[in-house]
Amino acid sequence: MRTPARFPLALTAAALAAAAPLAAASATPVPQGPVVVAAAVASPTPDSAEGEAYAATILGRVNELRAGMGRAPLVRYVQLDAAAQAQSEQMAADGAVSHRPNFANSYPAGSSSSAEIVAVQAKADGADVAGQIVDQWMASEEDRAKMTAADANAVGIGIAYNASTDSWYVTQSLAAYPDAAASGLTRTDGAPTAPQEPSASASPDPTTPAAPEPSAPETVEEVPAAPAGWTQARAEVEITRGLPAGATTTETVALDGPSQLFRPWPSAPLASRERAAWRVRVAGPDGVLSPWSAPAVVETGLLERSDWTARPITAPGNARTDAAPVLVRRLTVPAGVSAARLHLTAAGVYEAFIDGVKVGRHELAPGWTEYADRLLVQTHDVTAALTPGEHEIAVVLGNGWYRGNLTWQMRECVYGQALWLLAQLELTGEGGTDVVATDETWAWRPSNVTANDLYNGQSTDLRLPALGEAGAEAPVEVLPLPGAALEPTVLPLPTVIGQVAPVEVVTTPSGRRILDFGQNLTGHIRLAVRGQAGAVVTLRHAEVLEDGELGTRPLRRAEATDRAILSGGDDVFAPTLTQHGFRYVEVNGFPGDDDALLAAAAARVVSAGMERAAWFDCSSEPVARLVENTRWSTIDNFITVPTDCPQRDERLGWTGDIGVFAPTALSLYDAAAFLASWTTDLAAAQTPDGAVPVVIPDVLGGTRLTCAWGDAVALVPWAVYEASGDAAVLAASVDAMARFVDGVERAAGPSRLWRGGFQFGDWLDPDAPPQNPGAAKADPDVVATAYFARSAGITARACAILGQTERAARYEALAAAVRAAYLDAYVTADGLILSDCATVYAQALAWDLLDTPRRVAGAGRRLADLVRLRSFRISTGFVGTPLVPAALVKGGQAATAARLVLERGCPSWLYPVTMGATTIWERWDSMLPDGSINPGEMTSFNHYALGAVTQWLISDLAGLDLAAPGGAALRVAPQVGHGFTSAGVVRRLPLGVARASWRLDGDLLTASVEVPVGATAELVLPGAEPEVVGHGLHERTARVPAEVLGTDRREVLTVRDLIDDAPSWERVVEAVSACGHPVYGDDPAGALARSLAHDLDSTARILPGAATTYGFIPGLEGLRDRLAGIIAEAAPRAAEVPAHLRS
User: Which of 28, 312, 656, 1039 is the most exposed place for a label (fewest CB within 10 A)?
Assistant: First the structure.
């Protein structure tokens, strides 16, 4: 009997608060789903064990991909490993990837087919080197086909390291062996080689159209396998624990019940410096146990303040504008050291080196938190680096957020004037533990970084030693231990997650050279250059070009400029103490031609080391690009806090932005630990009246009780809980939620209506003037009261989940009272809502604020009409935009939702795509149609908030939604048709990988759904009866009714019918546009639709008169005749125009 190979045990945050892992590889003590923290300790230099770990991970991920396609797993064999290793070592020696023309000659005889794929990945490109390699292969149709070939059953993996390029070279040797034993193959894992049959594909009948399969995950874990109908009855967890170099104890704990998500840690909490390895096996109702899983490992850092003997040290006299200081300690490591751990944090940002080799892969550590409240500590395993003998620890400090410029006011030294380092090295051997801690025995010296600032950039004198000169050393000053908490790092810190090559060199009208990287991104440039000693190379960054030159106005006061003074030798410039948002880099002073410049430069993408969690595709290439743009804006703004933008003099953790975007971020990436850390600072900054700052960390000063922005205190933790199923984030946030709701309750008073006071409201309404983005159509009181009801309801549910029954009842009653007041004050019996704009209807429908079917239907119809009257373009701002498609579907207007999403005119989601956008813009028209930059002060080209529609595309269009927290129950209800012919999504959920995809061939719907073990799914497909299915692959076909598809082309009788009939409406708009009359201005479609605001129920024949103002404006006579002809063809049976409207 087959049983699951893995049990996705996950632990509560509370249980793991005393078990924070080493943060050197961004491991988190709150694993999302299958516990994978074996990489919790990181070596600063590569070794064979590291390479083998990558190889094992690659095999697991390739087999996960094959499992998703119904393919048998590949088995790794020693002989094929040798063939692959030989090729990898040759590539590493050559410094280039290559294929052997006769690679199969190195394979054992007996294979029926064979293949080879190769890749190279820079080690600095992030902790997930293996994932990056698999991603490369997945991007190649040829390589993907080789990995997933139906007959392949054998593989060898070779991996070799090139120190000069800091890169891994990888080869997969793939083959099909009908009988591996007869071919003399030896399994790499040591298991006996049994006779095998060729693996068979489990694809559907080739005569049935296959559903589209989006690009498969590159970072997923092994999907558990189980027989149909299998359920978990119990689990056993074996825990081996102890100090890294000490004795261990082992215990086995039984866990009863089917729950697979966030089971409490089943043993005593780990103490400081303790290491635990655990593995899991599970049993079904029949009691048969699975094999043990591979072990997962966690190791704690320093959990108690008393663990610290180190004290902060600073470089006396070093100012913000001085060279970055290097804090130095030389030491002698005795023989017999079996474990070495380096714990450190800093005021500022740091890079640590041992003997000149960087420790870990973090960028901008220790990150940005509310420094007065807590500082994050990173712990690194440095055992391999500290061999017996003499060594030097050197730590470079940069200004970072602590002392650099912050906000558009360019505030300096917000947190303090002096940078400091707190570091504690612990060397453990048979004789005990020696501690080398920051104290007066350390020294400092200036580095070759002569200036550094996150906004303005970095200057480096490459003529000087990077870590300074020993002769320039001076004593340090010892400071008291900070009052802030010293917390182990539980979020993935930023790292270099990828590298982008430039696509061309642009020569500007002024004769300057600009590198175009083809993608708007966040990070810095790596430039290899050889030039005259003392020569200066200058790099200026921007997101766009304007008039052919670098478009720097959106940066405002941020200089975004890096400078390198060349040494005269072979230099590599990588400014790691700054960060820029850019697609274009103007390069001045580079001593080479365009080809040399293209070869010398690369953009390093810096982001939090989160694992990707969703892959989306659909029949509309622009919509698929929109999702990809949203993903890039998530990467670019999730550095250490969720920022609004990564490029200008701002880059702040605006609460409103993440309040609307958190569900999308959590679908695209495993961002739960990242956002849970941020909400910790949000709750800490709250004042007793419930108000919170509008940015976290709070560098603007003071708190406000504002809707949307303040509601983030409830919305973000709730989004984390829904995505992960981890109630610990609610436990940590529920008091802050309640304080906020209580504060709003006091402000609203007995009316239960949140009225008056400052509100951002529906910020960036497209009808608001560029210089007044808060001038929205939506009444701020209506918007605020809707948020009041929303947050009160969420707080009630959070309390109920945590077992706080009385508190839950209080907030549920409050939420009901607010909803009742909202309906009484703002909503008519027919569902019309005060201020009559799309945002207020979207809130009411999406958040279930309406109490009767009559109101729901009326609000849905009115919202659809408002969308029609904008010619299907966006009319909402910050608050309303993410809600509109889902609200239209709830209001029975799915066709209108799809047409809104597919619209390309400005403002729309696809307008930036048509303008070449590679990220989400702050404004719909951040770039105007003529290529000029919007004149507004706030014109970012990398702002994730308006990309929140991606959540709807994943959950509704592709149709894979979470019906229970963490995905324990799924709902597959795709919105098919209406301009889309296919869509699909792969989601990496806590329980495993789920997939949903569909394709239309005429009216035949073919759908495919894969449900992970431990989950169920409700299938709600058009043309079929709803059903609930368990884990496994499920394929369905159905005939879809024409009215669902939108292919019935109802008879055009009214103006509303005419607008809904896309081909006819397009002809009307073309005629109006062609007339060129100034009454229609620059937006003929929008002006025409708005002119029909009161005529939607009128006969379509009214259009020629209404569009030409019934003859009262001269010059439109020809247009009237053309429109009359169109209407005669499109609406031949429409009623005649009433006599009183005839001209």
Answer: 1039
